[in-house]
Design brief:
single chain, 417 residues, alpha+beta, three-stranded antiparallel sheet, 18 helices, 9 strands, disordered N terminus
């Protein structure tokens, strides 16, 4: 048994804060001759414009030249350089995604104790600049200030599962645990609740739900994860055993090839189990999530309850899934070989009418100062959420903080975020 991953790495967050302070201590805060703060503390507008142009001369120019807007909801905030209509549509899609996650897992709706910020970018180059890595189309960086989820708009429709949505599943599960009665909220976690989710279920569920798609007002759940499906269909006799998957608590300690197999088999176990649980479709009249009730997976619920009570893993698997680990592995691989690239469940738009009625539709455009310091925090650490201190695009973060301080020298929000 292992605890579900907490998205905030406390030690990494402290390191990030220390790096912010070190960067700010070294920033050139002196303004060019004749320049003044944009907030108007004396001088004229021409001086502020000079300062703005000077800051744009650095590596942050492509980011600062974009028009960033904020879309705030009770559960998260989205920042984007997309057209307003596209950004609002993405907000609604993310709200629907969160709703389905809560119904699927049986989570009551709670707001995360640490703010969640989505940064949805129009192109991959913008993500790469924030990440400091041209190979990334998205990343998640936890910090004490906020949990940042960054991706291109196109990455939300990745047929291999969106990394942004994968990470958001973890945040939704964690926010339910932080809200109070974790065991009651989790349901599937039994007495241990979401705090005690086995690692295979924690990751397999996120992989399973990350392929959720909205098409023409229809929400499709359980579309096979193309990347994981391909990995398992190309398997050989050395494939990791499901018994080892169930027992794994520290995925990072596995050899590289085993990590990929762990994620693929974890996804397969969750997908296979839900394909049986939802064999007749989404339960008729499945309630909205106001009380934490939803269309549950009886077998997984049973397994998690048994393990939370201390039952041996293999015995719990036999009782809950109806097979020992050898039979379970055979059934999973048979499922993988025959599964079709279609969703397990389709939900009509009417299922989400109550959500669409409350999602805000009015963007708030960020001024140059606010865009700079917010982007600075996103860039600091970039996609290296678990890397040692010093990783990430600190040069970009420095340029962004410099820009903010040139516009408003001495302003505490620029210095401390």
């Amino acid at each position: 048994m292992t605890r579900a991953r907490v998205p905030v790495d406390a030690r990494g967050g402290v390191r990030a804060c220390v790096r912010v302070l070190l960067l700010l201590a070294l920033l050139p805060v002196a303004l060019p001759a004749g320049a003044v703060a944009a907030g108007g503390r004396g001088g004229d507008a021409d001086g502020a414009a000079d300062a703005y142009r000077a800051a744009l001369a650095g590596p942050a120019r492509p980011l600062l030249a974009r028009r960033w807007a904020e879309y705030r909801t009770p559960a998260f905030t989205l920042y984007s350089d997309l057209d307003a209509a596209d950004a609002i549509a993405s907000v609604r899609d993310i709200e629907r995604f969160a709703h389905v996650v809560r119904e699927t897992v049986g989570l009551a709706q709670r707001v995360s104790t640490i703010p969640v910020e989505f940064w949805l970018c129009a192109d991959a180059a913008t993500v790469a600049r924030l990440a400091g890595d041209s190979t990334l189309l998205g990343f998640m960086r936890p910090s004490p200030r906020a949990s940042y989820l960054v991706a291109t708009a196109a990455a939300l429709d990745d047929p291999g599962g969106s990394p942004m949505l994968h990470e958001y599943v973890h945040l939704l599960v964690r926010s339910a645990a932080d809200g109070g009665d974790a065991a009651a909220d989790a349901g599937a976690g039994g007495e241990g609740g979401v705090l005690d989710l086995p690692r295979w279920y924690d990751e397999g569920l996120a992989e399973f739900l990350a392929t959720l798609r909205v098409h023409g007002g229809e929400v499709r759940i359980g579309v096979p994860n193309r990347r994981r499906l391909q990995q398992l269909r190309m398997r050989d006799d050395r494939l990791m055993g499901i018994g080892q998957v169930l027992a794994t608590s520290d995925v990072e300690a596995l050899p590289g090839v085993r990590v990929a197999e762990f994620y693929a088999l974890s996804w397969a176990l969750v997908h296979w189990s839900y394909s049986r649980s939802w064999a007749d479709g989404w339960p008729a009249g499945a309630p909205h999530v106001a009380n934490g009730a939803g269309p549950r997976n009886v077998a997984i619920d049973d397994y998690l309850r048994r393990v939370s009570r201390g039952e041996p893993l293999r015995a719990a698997a036999r009782a809950a899934f109806g097979s020992d680990v050898h039979g379970l592995q055979r059934r999973l691989l048979e499922h993988v070989d025959r599964v079709r690239p279609v969703p397990l469940v389709k939900l009509p738009a009417a299922h989400f009418a109550h959500l669409d009625a409350v999602v805000p539709v009015t963007p708030r455009e960020l001024d140059g100062y606010e865009a700079a310091w917010r982007l600075g925090y996103v860039a600091l650490g970039g996609g290296r959420s678990r890397a040692p201190a010093g990783a990430g695009d600190e040069a970009m973060a420095r340029a962004l903080f410099t820009h903010a301080l040139r516009l408003r020298p001495g302003d505490l929000r620029a210095q401390m975020g």
